[in-house]
């Protein structure tokens, strides 16, 4: 589904990722871990085309990302839901409008999708907060709203960058539960996190592959997690 | 950019337009600049049209007439005048010719010498007014014949003072059009600056939109629509104000000269209505270019 072959990425003369190879198979669940600054976010950005590899080959859904034109890249991003640690909402829009934003940009009428939108917001526990604006939401509510936005177009892959970085343990378990549920629906999930307790907690719920970035290289993590 | 892209960029979409929050600074700048420039464009257009009319009038009025001056001693003046009139009657291209009366010559000199000029005591040449026919007369041929038969005759076909006047009027018209082009360029530059400021202020929103799969034309459309319609509104207000200003100028009159003739006539009043459309077109192109450059700079 998403495949990196000997991918390297450099910026400002320094190499951030070196010779990374990994496959995200359909329906798989991955954790990406490593110390802060190791390159987790960079790897995620490469996966959804926000960055292009300096060398190597990166393909998504069978297409070489480097060969896609701008419109094709936009289409690709609709098939990959992304949850950022800082959520990135448009503060002047309501929660419902923010979550419905991918529908709008893809040309689908939000009115026609109203039932799905409401159902989705209930699924993440925000059914009563439709008209709230992002600054009025708690950290956990924002993360759940970001998760809802990332999946409203029913993408094949969900990438989450430190989704539990700003929430308490209880809320992180709730978010993990939602991501596991998405995986059970057939979505490919990749979570970048430095929180090893989250990975340990996930072990009882899902069969996850743990990848670690260390010294610019990607490794399959051992049993010490 | 094909017509479908242009339609997509301009089609109203209230929800899509809500994605980019209106920013006061760029909104006010666009409205003010397009309004002020449209106001100036109306006056430049009025100047250009008035100059064109003036060049045409001066050209046609003076081109159809000539003056013959008889510089002869007093005792030969009547005979040479009669000889000149006879020649003129035989000259092809002369519709009519007549000697000015003493009163008419006196009236011509009155602005310089006063009304009580004793014309018969002064060596004032006799003037003959010639009205040309169609086709006009052959001035060079007439001069040769007059030189041989009426030694005191000097033909003035008005060329030497008609041409600078017409050239002056044409230069004024050219200046008017250049002003309109400069106004268009300045409007484009200011709206480009405003659009760039708006794009920079909304960089985070653009990043979010791209990340969730928005195409460039969706993002550009949100900016292009806003700037185009703002420019259209500002230019419409500026044009109406400019037309009102032109309307309040004094009516054209001979006593007032050029300044009182500065305005629109007849169907010319419809021409300023093109200014808001051109203003919107300039804003459309400026914003679309700025947005395209900005978006292409992102991966």
**CATH topology call of the largest domain in chain A:** Rossmann fold
Level of helix content of chain A?
A: 25-40%
pLDDT < 50 runs, ≥5 residues of chain B: none
Annotation field: number of helices of chain B: 10
Biggest interface reads: A-B, 27 and 21 residues
Oligomer: heterodimer
Shape of chain A: globular
List the helices and strands of chain A in order: EEEHEEHEHHHEHEHEE
The CATH superfamily label of the largest domain in chain A reads P-loop containing nucleotide triphosphate hydrolases
Q: How many individual domains of chain A?
A: 2
Mean pLDDT of chain A: 89
Q: In what range is the share of β-strand residues of chain B?
A: 5-15%
Strand order of the largest sheet of chain A: 6-7-8-3-9-10
Note the beta-strand portion of chain A. Answer: 25-35%
Cα Rg of chain B: 31 Å
**Poorly predicted segments of chain A:** none
Major beta sheet summary of chain A? 6 strands, mixed
Radius of gyration of chain A: 17 Å
Instruction: Give the helix tally of chain A.
Output: 7
- As laid out across the biggest beta sheet of chain B, the strand order is 2-3-1-4
Structural write-up:
The complex is a heterodimer of chains A (225) and B (299). Chain A is of the alpha/beta class and 225 residues long. Chain A is 33% helix and 26% strand. Chain A is built from 7 helices and 10 strands. Chain A has helices spanning 40-47, 70-78, 95-105, 114-123, 139-151, 169-184, 196-203; strands at residues 2-11, 14-24, 29-33, 55-60, 63-64, 80-83, 157-161, 188-192, 209-214, 217-220. In chain A, the strands form 2 sheets. A 6-stranded mixed sheet of chain A has the order 6-7-8-3-9-10, sandwiched between helices. In chain A, strands 2-1-4-5 form a 4-stranded antiparallel sheet, with helices on one face. In chain A, α3 (95-105) packs parallel to α5 and α5 (139-151) packs parallel to α6 (169-184). The longest helix of chain A has 16 residues, at 169-184. Chain A is globular. Chain B has 2 domains: 3-59 and 171-296, no CATH class; 72-151, no CATH class. In chain B, 67% of the residues lie in helices and 8% in strands. Chain B has 10 helices and 4 strands; from the N terminus they run αααβαβαβαβαααα. Chain B has helices at residues 3-10, 14-19, 24-63, 74-90, 102-113, 139-149, 159-201, 203-211, 216-247, 274-296; strands spanning 65-70, 94-99, 126-132, 153-156. In chain B, α3 packs antiparallel against α7 (159-201). The radius of gyration of chain B is 31 Å and the shape is rod-shaped. At the A-B interface, α2 and α3 of A face α2 and α8 of B.
């Amino acid at each position: 589904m998403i495949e990196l072959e000997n991918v390297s990425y450099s910026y400002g003369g320094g190499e951030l990722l070196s010779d990374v190879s990994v496959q995200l198979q359909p329906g798989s669940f991955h954790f990406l871990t490593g110390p802060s600054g190791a390159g987790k976010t960079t790897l995620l950005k490469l996966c959804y085309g926000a960055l292009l590899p300096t060398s190597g080959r990166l393909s998504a859904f069978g297409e070489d990302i480097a060969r896609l034109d701008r419109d094709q890249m936009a289409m690709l991003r609709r098939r990959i839901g992304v949850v950022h640690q800082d959520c990135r909402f448009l503060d002047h829009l309501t929660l419902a409008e923010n979550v419905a934003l991918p529908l709008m940009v893809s040309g689908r009428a939000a009115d026609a999708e109203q039932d799905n939108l409401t159902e989705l917001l209930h699924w993440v526990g925000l059914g009563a907060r439709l008209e709230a604006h992002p600054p009025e939401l708690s950290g956990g509510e924002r993360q759940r709203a970001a998760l809802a936005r990332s999946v409203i177009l029913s993408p094949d892959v969900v990438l989450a960058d430190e989704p539990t970085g700003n929430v308490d343990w209880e809320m992180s378990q709730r978010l993990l539960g939602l991501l596991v549920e998405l995986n059970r629906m057939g979505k490919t999930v990749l979570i970048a996190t430095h929180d090893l307790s989250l990975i340990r907690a996930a072990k009882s719920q899902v069969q996850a592959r743990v990848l670690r970035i260390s010294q610019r290289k990607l490794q399959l993590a051992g049993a010490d997690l | 950019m094909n017509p479908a892209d242009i339609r997509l960029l301009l089609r109203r979409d209230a929800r899509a337009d809500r994605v980019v929050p209106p920013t006061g600074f760029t909104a006010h700048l666009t409205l003010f600049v397009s309004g002020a420039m449209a106001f100036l464009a109306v006056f430049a257009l009025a100047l250009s049209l008035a100059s064109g009319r003036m060049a045409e009038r001066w050209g046609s009025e003076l081109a159809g007439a000539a003056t013959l001056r008889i510089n002869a001693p007093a005792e030969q003046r009547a005979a040479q005048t009669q000889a000149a009139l006879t020649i003129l009657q035989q000259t092809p291209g002369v519709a009519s010719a007549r000697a000015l009366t003493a009163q008419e010559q006196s009236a011509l000199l009155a602005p310089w010498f006063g009304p009580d000029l004793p014309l018969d005591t002064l060596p004032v040449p006799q003037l003959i007014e010639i009205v040309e026919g169609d086709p006009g007369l052959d001035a060079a041929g007439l001069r040769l014949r007059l030189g041989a038969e009426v030694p005191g005759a000097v033909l003035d076909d008005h060329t030497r003072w008609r041409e600078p006047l017409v050239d002056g009027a044409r230069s004024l018209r050219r200046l008017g059009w250049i002003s309109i082009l400069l106004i268009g360029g300045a409007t484009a530059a200011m709206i480009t600056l405003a659009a760039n400021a708006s794009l920079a202020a909304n960089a985070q929103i653009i990043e979010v939109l791209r990340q969730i799969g928005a195409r460039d034309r969706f993002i550009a459309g949100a900016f292009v629509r806003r700037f185009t319609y703002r420019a259209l509104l500002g230019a419409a207000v500026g044009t109406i104000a400019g037309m009102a200003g032109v309307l309040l100028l004094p009516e054209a009159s001979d006593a007032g000269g050029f300044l009182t003739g500065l305005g629109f006539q007849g169907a010319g009043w419809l021409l300023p209505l093109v200014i808001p459309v051109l203003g919107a077109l300039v804003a459309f192109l400026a914003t679309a270019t700025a947005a395209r450059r900005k978006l292409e700079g992102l991966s």
